[in-house]
Write a structure and sequence with these properties.
About 35% of the residues lie in helices and about 35% in strands. By secondary structure, the protein is an alpha+beta fold. The chain has one domain: Gcn5-related N-acetyltransferase (GNAT) (Aminopeptidase, 3-Layer(aba) Sandwich). The two termini are about 10 Å apart.
């Protein structure tokens, strides 16, 4: 899958290499995500450190004019999935990428995590890109990584909001649910969603 020529997804470390860290900080500090202040804060204050330490990698999506339209953040993570929550078909597919604990009927696997995803709401830039176009950029990168190192599972977490859930469950890439997680203080419910390549 190729990213539309309207957009360019740039690895943050490569951006720093070509433009310098001060330029990267300037671009990131102008990122506004009013719908998710957690994403905005991460992009502004932690993305560079996390990228340098290889904890996660932020990608910047620019338009042809060089405007930052959106970001997404990728990493990999080991996850445990209860077999009780999966269909027979999903269990069969999961076996290819997992180790199974028969005593607990759970699968342990390494998965690509879409850690954050967000549009830049500064000056109406959010109107220049759709959610499915951001996901096209995400999966273009993931397919490149998969071709180099293998793997076949992608997952993400999102808040229990109908519009978000509909986008992930019913959109182009069709994720399915696996067990819910709550924040450390149990004030926020996160729906965990999974997809096979």
């Amino acid at each position: 899958m190729a990213i539309s020529t309207k957009y360019k997804a740039v690895n943050l470390l490569k951006f720093i290499d070509s433009e310098g860290e001060d330029a990267a900080r300037a671009v990131l500090s102008a990122f506004i995500c009013g719908k998710n202040k957690e994403v905005e804060s991460f992009v502004r204050y932690q993305a560079i450190d996390f990228a340098k330490r290889k904890i996660s990698m932020t990608y910047l999506i620019f338009d042809e004019e060089g405007n930052l339209l959106a970001i997404f953040i990728l990493t990999h993570k080991a996850i445990d999935i209860s077999g009780d929550t999966l269909s027979n078909t999903a269990r069969k597919r999961l076996k290819r990428f997992s180790t199974i604990d028969e005593s607990t009927n759970s699968y342990t696997t390494s998965a690509f995590l879409i850690a954050q995803l967000g549009k830049n709401y500064a000056n109406g830039l959010d109107q220049r890109i759709r959610g499915d176009e951001i996901m096209d950029c995400v999966f273009t990168i993931l397919e490149e990584v998969q071709s180099m190192i293998g793997g076949g599972i992608v997952y993400l977490e999102c808040e229990d909001k109908p519009q978000l859930l509909s986008f992930y469950r019913n959109g182009k890439y069709r994720f399915f649910d696996f067990p819910t997680r709550y924040s450390a203080d149990e004030s926020t419910k996160y729906i965990q969603l999974l997809r096979f390549f």
